[in-house]
Write a structure and sequence with these properties.
By secondary structure, the protein is of the alpha/beta class. The chain has helices spanning 23-30, 91-97, 116-124, 144-151, 167-185; strands spanning 9-17, 36-41, 60-73, 76-82, 100-107, 129-134, 159-162. The longest helix is centred in the last third of the chain and has 19 residues, at 167-185. The protein is globular, with a radius of gyration of 16 Å. InterPro entries: Gliding_Motility_GTPase, Gpn, P-loop_NTPase.
Length: 186
């Protein structure tokens, strides 16, 4: 990873979520550099492991991580790491979570049950987090209060709608995470 000697501080955050929730797309929408993506074709080896029933058009998947960068000021850079969403890759989380200040947990409101193992991992690593409810074309919009209740989130956990394809919406989720991290420090 290239470290700019003019930057005095860098911050690492994770973008996490279950399989096919939009993590790679999210990082692509906020990164100021061409994101590093470890996307590979979904093969027959994933049969029985990856449930494609909700995402029949998905042809690739992240097999290691995604990485992006965002300069917040002349001396502060945000490094954004996306984790793979499948259970079989969760061993990578330990390394990716080292040094991270927090996480944006992306969720699909129609597949909330797939979010519980992700929340368990984020909490096991002690990461403060914000939940971004990804909005998908043609899908029912669920009130954020219902998502909070369904996920049994504490009142202190920020939850925001987020269209990962839209840079402004994605940036707002990132701003919410940064504000949450700052408030948890003070």
């Amino acid at each position: 990873m290239y470290l700019d000697p003019k930057v005095s501080r860098s911050v690492k955050v994770l973008v996490v979520g279950h399989f096919a929730v939009g993590k790679t797309t999210y990082i692509g929408s906020v990164s100021e550099i061409e994101p590093l993506q470890t996307e590979e074709e979904i093969t027959e080896a994933s049969v029985g492991l990856d449930d494609l029933s909700e995402t029949p058009d998905k042809t690739t998947t992240t097999v290691a991580m995604d990485f992006g960068r965002l300069t917040l000021s002349d001396d502060l850079v945000l490094y954004i790491f996306g984790t793979p969403g499948q259970e079989r890759f969760k061993q990578m989380w330990e390394g990716l979570s080292r040094g991270a200040l927090g996480a944006l947990v992306l969720v699909d409101p129609e597949r909330l049950e797939e979010t519980f193992p992700i929340l368990d991992l984020v909490e096991a690593f002690g990461l403060p987090y914000v939940v971004g409810v990804n909005t998908f074309d043609g899908r029912t919009h669920f009130p954020l209060s219902e998502v909070c209740e369904a996920l049994n989130l504490s009142d202190e956990t920020p939850v925001i709608d987020c269209d990962v394809r839209d840079q402004d919406s994605s940036m707002q989720a990132l701003i919410t995470l940064v504000k949450h991290l700052l408030s948890s420090l003070g």
